[in-house]
Amino acid sequence: xxxxxxxxxxxxxxxxxxxxxxxxxxxxxxxxxxxxxxxxxxxxxxxxxxxxxxxxxxxxxxxxxxxxxxxxxxxxxxxxxxxxxxxxxxxxxxxxxxxxxxxxxxxxxxxxxxxxxxxxxxxxxxxxxxxxxxxxxxxxxxxxxxxxxxxxxxxxxxxxxxxxxxxxxxxxxxxxxxxxxxxxxxxxxxxxxxxxxxxxxxxxxxxxxxxxxxxxxxxxxxxxxxxxxxxxxxxxxxxxxxxxxxxxxxxxx
Length: 253
Ligand code: NAD
What we know:
Layout: E1 9-13, H1 18-29, E2 33-38, H2 41-54, E3 59-63, H3 69-83, E4 88-91, E5 97-98, H4 106-134, E6 138-143, H5 156-176, E7 181-188, H6 195-198, E8 200-201, H7 207-216, H8 221-234, E9 238-241
Parallel strand pairs: 1-2, 1-4, 2-3, 4-6, 5-8, 6-7, 7-9
Bound molecules: nicotinamide-adenine-dinucleotide.
Nicotinamide-adenine-dinucleotide (NAD) is lined by residues 13-14, 16-20, 38-40, 43, 64-67, 92-95, 115, 119, 143, 145, 188, 190-191, 193-195, 198, 221.
């Protein structure tokens, strides 16, 4: 079989679960060596071990909080020193807080913006710099959300963070095009992962029926991963995925 990613290095954050894990596996299946970073050290290691059992590639794991600027700097330095400049970086780690905007505490806002926006900013600036210095191009994939276009009253801070990630991706794409570096914003509707179960629920919103309603829908993360590989291959700018899978109380536009 053709291995388009042989001898390439892909870094994925949030690779311990869901879309991140599926994306790491998909790149590895196409021949890439992968670095699987996650806040959950064990989950990241499980992803990497599973990949090495399944595919003839190198897969390593790294415990990482993407919202921590100095940890991100250490991580980027470690990647370059031990593995070289990555060819593809997937800024995927993200969290959700569900509930009405007026019920969001300052901590809720910080949690969302710190991980979903700052995590992506750190990943973009550190690795884009490495790619520009190396001068051999590359690709940065940021996982935004359908909520970037269709903000949800159930996910207000989350929607704001994802609109910012989409905007960041647009700016970066224009800036890096001259260096042969592509930037894609992936914008999925609901995907069946752990994110709903792990979400913080605020206000009167009842967690169990909300999670149950979401879990009745089914959209596998492997399908998102396929869109991500295609987006890199074709250098697509903005990629809606499962646009039917809007999450409750979506504001119409
Ligand atoms: P998930 O919860 O299954 O996986 C997220 C992973 O990120 C987990 O392994 C978690 O440990 C890790 N993580 C959380 N905070 C982190 C941090 N500070 N540093 C490093 N890792 C951290 O969720 P998922 O659905 O696979 O989410 C992946 C991305 O896709 C997120 O950015 C999410 O917002 C986005 N997304 C998800 C959906 C969906 O419906 N599932 C829809 C659109 C976009």
